[in-house]
Design goal:
By secondary structure, the chain is α+β, with helices and mostly antiparallel strands. The radius of gyration is 17 Å and the shape is globular. The chain contains five helices and 13 strands.
């Protein structure tokens, strides 16, 4: 199984730097939501480390490869935080989905989210706190902003990782929490149901937030699972960061 995918990002109104990052490939989907001074660097570091997973690999190596990539990102964040005082507080939330054979490994850390559209039903398959749960998506609670951990120099917490079975025809949405908080769940559902092209779906989803005059960066990835031969050129979006050397 592989993905037909697309990614997109928009900088929040009045912001100078987009602290989000995203990646859409044939075997890897990921979004990262940077936090703190230098958050855009932390987000870029996570996405850069995860890119090693966008390749064919044995199914039994899936979780190990994903966990190792996150560990590499953590060490690079710690190294930079130690060398540059102004980056001490940088961190990032992230969600990643990696495909190998019929299996998908989902890694989740913080307030970024993953949703699955299957047979006309939309499910949120991550929680807002970074631990996995499967639940039918309901309207977002009003006035309740999700909070959660970030991967930074000071945390040893590991991401939640679970393996699920891929099914052709499933559609996945990975997004930063700004998309969920600043758009209506039924509007998102309508876009995912009616737009066959993931790139068009991404554009429309970002437009939902832009129409509300958002002040936060917003990033999302839309991907369809397929068992047909395909070559999905990787798409990297984001972060307003050039990666410093480590």
């Amino acid at each position: 199984m592989t993905f037909i995918s697309a990614a997109g990002s928009r900088t929040g109104r009045g912001r100078r730097i987009n602290q989000d990052a995203g990646y859409a490939g044939a075997r890897l989907l990921a979004v990262a939501d940077g936090d703190g001074e230098g958050g855009e660097i932390a987000a870029a570091l996570v996405i850069d480390a995860l890119r090693v997973c966008d390749t064919e690999m044995p199914t039994d190596a899936l979780v190990t490869r994903l966990r190792d990539a996150v560990g590499q990102a953590r060490e690079r964040i710690r190294t930079l935080s130690g060398r540059h005082r102004e980056l001490t507080g940088m961190g990032t939330a992230f969600t990643a989905l990696v495909s190998s054979g019929d299996d998908l490994a989902l890694a989740d850390f913080g307030i970024t989210q993953a949703h699955m559209l299957r047979e006309s039903e939309l499910f949120q398959i991550t929680s807002d706190e970074g631990s996995l749960q499967v639940c039918v998506v309901e309207p977002d609670p009003q006035g309740m902003r999700p909070t959660g951990p970030v991967l930074n120099a000071g945390t040893d917490r590991e991401p939640s990782i679970m393996v699920r079975k891929a099914r052709p025809g499933d559609r996945y949405l990975l997004c930063c929490e700004a998309l969920s908080f600043h758009s209506d769940v039924m509007d998102r559902y309508e876009v995912l149901m009616t737009e066959d092209d993931p790139a068009v779906a991404v554009s429309r989803l970002l437009g939902l937030v832009m129409a509300n005059g958002h002040e936060e960066d917003v990033t999302c990835v839309v991907a369809d699972v397929t068992d047909a031969p395909t070559l999905n050129p990787p798409m990297l979006v984001a972060a307003g960061a050039s990666l410093p050397g480590t």
